[in-house]
Amino acid sequence: MIILHEILASRLKRPELLQTCAHVVDSGLPVVDPASGAVLCRAPAVGAEAVRAAILVADRALLAWKKLGPAARSRLLHAYADLIAENVDDLAVIMTAEQGKPVPEAKGEVEHGLEYVRWYAEEARRVYGQEWRLDAGRRILVQKEALGVAAAITPWNFPCSTLLRKIAPALAAGCPVLVKPASQTPLSALALAALWQEAGGPAEVFQVLVGDAQEIGQVLTESPLVRGLSFTGSTEVGRLLMRASAATVKRLSLELGGHAPFIVFADADMDAALAGVLACKFRNSGQTCVSANRLLLQESIAEEFCARLVPAVSALKTGNGFDAGVDLGPLIDEAAMAKVERHVADALARGASLACGGGRLTVPGNADHFFAPTLLVQARPDMLVAREETFGPLLPVLTFRDEAEALRLANATIYGLAAYFYSRDVARVQRVAERLAFGMVGVNTGRMSAEATPFGGVKQSGFGREGGHFGIDEFLEIKTLHLGL
């Protein structure tokens, strides 16, 4: 058992949810609280041989897990969801400790993630086939069956919900799954694996691999026994995984970087747009792949909108996620802080103006990982902040004259994950929604994720979908049977 940070342990109703891996420990991985900078504990890290052993365990479990049948898998997933619901508070505390987001936000993430488990508990029963009778002597059956052993590589910004929306459809489809959580946030994944076993789920079909991302990723991509890989993370790493998986021709599902425009037209509901951009941009301190990265305001309303937005952004409270009333927690590490600073400096050097924020904040008793929620006005498309994903609480404001210019600015990116726009013109809503080159479009809403709907992007934001029946299809193969009668 790992040695727990006593402050973290004291916050938990069930300290036993802080689990270790079942594999041989090669080295200790420090898990750091990004708010305080304290080492919470050292999680056991596995090496290449342990990963290969885990793949063999999963492969041996594949047939039995498939044969268990949809109804039995469904009951297990329902039991699992119930246990997650019972332990929401502890899971939220663990997440805040290792990731930094405010506890209420962490709790909301856990609750959102468990809805994916409930959805796929039912979706397990709805994997349908088809039948054709072309003539009297021949019948054709099309059936779907489990893809095989699957791997999931999950990010640090949503260590619970992203993991659950990957493993739930895999398990529902009949696939054993190996999870590589981000090195910064392994404790949430280990706790979720412990609850799976407590619900009666076989340990062999949900294994967590904590350790060096490159070493573990290399084994997973090279193994012919791993038939599918689902990854959420940067476009740069996604490209590497595609190359590494080519030799074994794996099924890939990649949710990569984003650079979401948030467009407000002059005919929009200003109150709704203001609330939408605040929630969309500053959730998780801007560390989300679907965050608004560029605020595009029609010229005629730009001054009025900014006059209302600046005090609202300035009023957001930044601090330790365990403190009451906190809206924004810390950024994950020093590299994240440096990137936000680089984007601010570049924008100011190119002529942007600082409307609020703009630098680090000192939170007494904590590390230097807090950045003030920041608004830049008079931004231009050539600035780094208008071209790169910032992943922090920084929002540049650009203006546009008409609909055509708004679409040109919005689509001028290699990414295509999420886009948002506000308008009350019904005809415009239809036109703009169709012409935005993004996998997901929020129309008069800043919300982008639901268990029943597909989540994913186009262009260099990846391919494949999570959520709804689309999500389980990523873990199913189609087999055609030609029967002579």
Automatic annotation (TrEMBL):
Family, per entry: Belongs to the aldehyde dehydrogenase family.
GO molecular function, one term: succinate-semialdehyde dehydrogenase (NAD+) activity
Key words of the record: Oxidoreductase
Source organism superkingdom: Bacteria
A matching Pfam family: Aldedh
Aldehyde dehydrogenase domain residues: 29-480
Protein name per its UniProtKB record: Succinate-semialdehyde dehydrogenase (NADP(+))
GO biological process: gamma-aminobutyric acid catabolic process
Transmembrane domains' residue ranges: none
Keyword Oxidoreductase: yes
